[in-house]
Amino acid sequence: MALPNSPAQPPLRKRDVVSRICAALFGGYAAAAALSVLLARLLPLSKPNATTVAIMAIALLYLGAMLWAFAARSPSRAWAVLVVVALAASALSWALIAWGGR
Description:
mainly alpha
């Protein structure tokens, strides 16, 4: 039951729910994968250990991205944030590789 002075919530539309599910699955995976690659490059560990830690962290990163997709104010905002995170992490990883990083 809505409070008397609270704004009414718009009804959920099927396409919004489907868009959030797709953002959580595909955008979340892209963001988590890009962040795990960046994490593996930035950790001050040996290459095998950094890779192992990054692979284990991908589950938490993916969970966070999926939760964000459903917590965002709109499906377009969820897509935008996940795409920006994925592109930024990918660009930083590529820059580290290009500039002689590990």
